[in-house]
Amino acid sequence: MISAKNITKKYGKHVALNNVSLEVSKGEVFALLGPNGAGKTTFVKSLLGLVSLSGGELSLFDKSVSDSSSRVGVSYLPEKFSFHNYYSVYDCVKFFGQMHGLKGDDLHQKVQSAISRVGISDISDSKLNKISKGQLQRTGIATLLVSDSKLIILDEPFSGLDPLGIKDLKDIIASLAKEEDKAIFINSHILSEMEKICDSMAVLNKGEILVQGKIEEILAGEELEEYFYKLIKDVK
Ligand SMILES: Nc1ncnc2c1ncn2[C@@H]1O[C@H](COP(=O)(O)OP(=O)(O)OP(=O)(O)O)[C@@H](O)[C@H]1O
């Protein structure tokens, strides 16, 4: 679903991604991990076509990311979800449903079901400027659930959520992961959460991939946090 072959991104003289290669396949929950400034956001922006690469090949569903149709079937949740303040939660999720081609009763049912799945049915009619940060983030998650996107890209999805929100999101990710035709790509710092929900990972540091593969095989019984800190310390 995602294929990066030797991709490089330079901002002026600064190399943010250096010869990065990685693959994300159907059915995977994939974590891109790395310290501040490692290049994670640059990688996500490259997938979304928001920055142009300096070299290499990056594709979604076997189409180059330079072709915007490669992003049909992709949903993205930014770290801080935002939308027009004067929309209600319902209308916001409905807008995303309409963007994915849903109509009539089907649209209404899917919007209601997405809102209920993230536990905010009680504030469905509230305007976005009248709800909390965590409720707004849950609204963002509902916008992902309303469509049947095959690739879901989550940027720091746990940020702004309370422990209950984190638990709900982990359950949602786990249930989406059961759908074998989907892949979930997560960019996050919260290592403890990643270990429980992801099956594959790559660690980026200073624009370079240090390790990549199945989490269980990489960790071989070690805790992810411990493994990560040792790995980063060793290459500093
Ligand atoms: N628009 C830009 N112009 C110049 N340099 C940039 C730009 N965007 C990012 N960088 C640099 O590229 C490197 C990678 O940044 P990036 O935002 O991709 O890292 P990150 O892993 O997402 O970091 P964080 O975890 O702090 O969000 C950093 O050194 C950053 O300073």
TrEMBL record:
PROSITE patterns: ABC_TRANSPORTER_2. The keyword Transport applies. Residues 2-231 form the ABC transporter domain. The keyword ATP-binding applies. GO terms for molecular function: ATP binding; ATP hydrolysis activity. Keywords: ATP-binding, Nucleotide-binding, Transport. InterPro entries: AAA+_ATPase, ABC_transporter-like_ATP-bd, ABC_Transporter_VariousFunc, P-loop_NTPase. It comes from the Bacteria. This is ABC transporter, ATP-binding protein.
